[in-house]
Amino acid sequence: MQEVYISGGGMTKFGKRKETLVDLMVESARKALQDAGKDKVDALYVGTMNPEEFAAESNIASVVADRLGLVPVPATRIETASSSGAAAFDEAIYAAASGYFNSVLAIAGEKMTSVSTDRVSKILAEVIAPEERKYGATMPALAAMIIRRYIYKYGMKEKDFAEVAVKNHKNAVRSPYAHFNKLISVKDVLRSKVIADPLKLYDCSPISDGAASMVVTSEKSRVKLRGLGQGSEHVPLTRRKKFTTFQSTKIAAERAYKMAGIYPEDISFAEIHDAFTPFEIIGSEDVGFFEPGMGWIGLKEGETSKTGRIPINPSGGLKARGHPVGASGLAQVVEAVWQLRGEAEDRQIERELKYALTQSIGGLATNNMVIILEAV
Amino acid sequence: MQEVYISGGGMTKFGKRKETLVDLMVESARKALQDAGKDKVDALYVGTMNPEEFAAESNIASVVADRLGLVPVPATRIETASSSGAAAFDEAIYAAASGYFNSVLAIAGEKMTSVSTDRVSKILAEVIAPEERKYGATMPALAAMIIRRYIYKYGMKEKDFAEVAVKNHKNAVRSPYAHFNKLISVKDVLRSKVIADPLKLYDCSPISDGAASMVVTSEKSRVKLRGLGQGSEHVPLTRRKKFTTFQSTKIAAERAYKMAGIYPEDISFAEIHDAFTPFEIIGSEDVGFFEPGMGWIGLKEGETSKTGRIPINPSGGLKARGHPVGASGLAQVVEAVWQLRGEAEDRQIERELKYALTQSIGGLATNNMVIILEAV
After folding, report:
1. Apex CA B54: angle with CA B52 and CA B55, to 5°?
2. What are the structural domain ranges in chain A?
3. What is the pTM of this model?
4. What is the CATH number of domain A5-116+208-217?
5. Interface with B, mutate which of A79, A134, A360 (most B CBs under 10 A)
6. At B149, phi and psi to the nearest 5?
7. From first to last of its 376 residues, what are the pLDDT tens digits of chain B?
8. What's the distance, CA B154 to chain centroid?
9. Distances B368 to A70, B83, B314, B333 between C-alpha atoms, Å
10. What is the DSSP string of A271-288?
11. Alpha helical stretches, state H, B229-324
12. A65 touches chain B (CB under 8 A)
């Protein structure tokens, strides 16, 4: 199989942005091209969940190719709900590995703040199976049910998973890319408004705008793709065997580790999908960093902090960097590249880093992705 | 480069269908899997333009994977406006050629008749550049301007391009897949309602529902991929150098021929994007079957009829098979496979067929695809 490298990454600041979705995508893409030292690529992938309904943008791959001055390169839009950014990365990898293209640009973004919060919730709820949506199920409501089950099974308390938000806000406190640059306490989390019991406002990632981009190539560079995996899952929750683990992450991780020929204990740090912060805990178990039911204890003991055994979300994660849905999966990979190259500024993990893992959730864990990178 | 074969195809009847988009996709996918003699694949691509707005379907790749019983395989949605079906095919090819997957299922579909015709027009017009859309430009209006220019430059008359619809309806007259099974005359076309002068109703493809699917694999089979190409173009028409040719098709064709190592005169027959029937004429020139401005003369002289030198749209094309936007690009490829295998029933071209070419237009020719297949 053709080896593929990552030669450049770029990201906008995430948050409430005045620019259009296309402006944000173009900004991040120009940074990635500059970082890669390229002004041309052979193909373009654009990951975004729902630009039509969030941002009234259609035919977006062509629009972005045109705005970047890349016409007539092939330009294709990729979508797998909230893991669209990781999916765009995967397609860029397959395209480069196929031998059809030498260098490929993956761009991912979302502009969510142009519509009302109610409208955002409604659009996001469209990923829920119709037979469950018709009872008024929303994403936070279903996530809350999952967390309730985890609490029941493993004895975690609300103050325990509040630590995810506290840690991730701390990691992002000086990040120029993060939606939030604010320290918060466990008390702040526990006192924040209940969204869907036991999830409070500060257990949920914010509604954000932002974009991230990356250049992948078959030419040797400082970061190499070592493994990737994607797994799908039954859409209705009622058809799943377990709630406290996501089968789609486990399958994705298994494939990525197998391809990489390494094990969870080899990973230096990870970016894990924390759209709802307890999902970071479940994710850290699903990718093999902790035994089932032990992730919250590892968190409590500081193992996932920036100085711990396996730092998770040094970027601040979706919670503090923000969660423009389609952008997040690729933003994770950009952060991983910067960390592996020792270029993560104030967020840099201060030790030698060899392997990075990212994990992204699509929909309510119906299409999850795991990516493993290596510093070479 | 890894060789890739097409081992199975399937299609629903196109037209106004009662079934949901997912039902149609599943129906076509089951047929393709059966044709390929497979019950499992390693990955799934779903091409569709705008299921959110046309059919209130979201997270569609996961939903289709689940409905097909394919969980936990990777499932990814692909979109390039009206060429989404061809783009899904291309991604399936890259995925199989990359060595990551052995067999890949590409599905493409659209359900357009659930919303009003006005709403369909509005959704389709979203592919037009905002600076041109704001003056009320619609797809037929811009297509009409392009055709006006062709008429001015090359002396074609309305009765000349009416022959495209007449030919394509004739080709589809006994097709079990076609939206229309009705012979029409030049007089019928000329007397039909004016949509955007000089385009009449019968010069425009209908609003349809439908889906098509295909299995591609690295295992040897009866039809082989020989070439593919994609080309993008400036989105605003005001930024294009020429109207009477689509640069995006020319680039796509050039790449596909180069990869295949063959020439336009080697092609046995073609499926060409005739969403507006004069586009078939432009397309037939852009892929090299005719010199610029000569396509309508070739049509008039019967060269593109089923018994002519280079039969175009033996399926009936988008005009008569119907045009569920995201489905059409893949439906063309399915028809090509059937023709190459001699299994096109009443539509079969009665001679030895070696190479087939398909050409699909995304948006107003902003992202076009050309695919070349070989009977082996």
Report:
1. 70
2. 5-116+208-217
3. 0.97
4. 3.40.47.10
5. A79
6. -65, -40
7. 789 999 999 999 999 999 999 999 999 999 999 999 999 999 999 999 999 999 989 999 999 999 999 999 999 999 999 999 999 999 999 999 999 999 999 999 999 999 999 999 999 999 999 889 899 899 999 999 999 999 999 999 999 999 999 999 999 999 999 999 999 999 999 999 999 999 999 999 999 999 999 999 999 999 999 999 999 999 999 999 999 999 999 999 999 999 999 999 999 999 999 999 999 999 999 999 999 999 999 999 999 999 999 999 999 999 999 999 999 999 999 999 999 999 999 999 999 999 999 999 999 999 999 999 999 9
8. 26
9. 15, 7, 20, 14
10. EE--SBHHHHHHHHHHTT
11. 247-260, 277-286, 295-300, 317-321
12. yes
The CA distance from B321 to the nearest CA of chain A, in Å, is 24
Q: Give me the count of residues in chain B.
A: 376
A372 part of contact set with chain B, CB < 8 Å: no
Considering only alpha carbons, which residue of chain A is nearest residue B77? A79
For B249, nearest residue in chain A (alpha carbons): A72
Question: Are the Cβ atoms of B77 and A72 closer than 8 angstroms?
Answer: no
Angstrom CA distances, B108 to B26, B98, B112, stand at 10, 22, 13
* Contact residues, B window 82-111, toward A, CB-based 8 Å cutoff: 87, 90-91, 93-95, 97-100
Nearest 5°: CA angle at A108, between A104 and A111? Answer: 155
Residue of B199, B355, B331 lying closest to B277 (CA atoms): B199
Distance from CA of A22 to the nearest CA of B (A): 12
Nearest 10 degrees: CA dihedral of A25, A26, A27, A32? 90
| Cα dihedral sign, A297-A301-A305-A309 | negative
Inter-CA distances, B126 with A39, A161, A241, B49, Å? 29, 43, 42, 11
Each residue's pLDDT tens digit, A133-192: 899 899 999 999 999 999 999 999 999 999 999 999 999 999 999 999 999 999 999 999
Question: From the CA atom positions of chain A, what is the Rg in Å?
Answer: 19
CATH number 3.40.50.880 is the correct assignment for the domain at B5-115+208-217: no
Whether A234 sits inside 8 A of B71 (CB atoms) is: yes
Give the distance, in angstroms, between the CA of residue B312 and the centroid of all CA atoms in the same chain.
12
- 3-class state of residue B139 by DSSP: helix
Q: Do A54 and A148 meet the contact criterion of CB atoms below 8 Å apart?
A: no
Q: Residue A36 burial by CB count (10 A; 0-12/13-18/19+): exposed, middle or buried?
A: buried
On chain B, the residues whose CB falls within 8 A of the CB of A234 are 66, 71
